[in-house]
Amino acid sequence: MLKNYLRIAARVSLRNKLYVAINLTGLGFALACCIWSYLNYDYRNSFDEIHRDHLPARQRPGD
């Protein structure tokens, strides 16, 4: 059954090359944005971890 689904998907992809290219470009762009957002969040969140002992008690993460 899975083999039939893949065969039909391949046929449709070959017929509608522009549509498939637009969808794959959008998917790649969305995935790149998600990865970039996570890396940006992780980078900005890492600043407080370096100097954890120098923060006032009310601002320490995990307390």
- Compute the average pLDDT: 85
Order of helices and strands: HHH
* Rg computed from alpha carbons, rounded to a whole number of angstroms: 23 Å
Number of strands: 0
Helix percent band: over 70%
| Largest sheet: number of strands, sense, barrel closure | none
Number of discrete helical segments? 3
Structural class: mainly alpha
Strand content: under 5%
What number of domains?
A: 1
- Backbone shape: elongated
Termini separation comes to: 54 Å
Spans with pLDDT under 50 lasting ≥5 residues? none
Jot down its keywords:
63 residues; mainly alpha; 3 helices
Description:
With 63 residues, the protein is mostly helical. The chain has one domain. It is 75% helix and 0% strand. The chain is built from three helices and no strands. It has helices at 2-15, 17-45, 47-50. The longest helix is centred in the middle third of the chain and has 29 residues, at 17-45. The protein is elongated. The termini are far apart.
Which helices and strands, and how do they pair?
Blueprint: H1 2-15, H2 17-45, H3 47-50
In short:
This protein is mostly helical and 63 residues long.
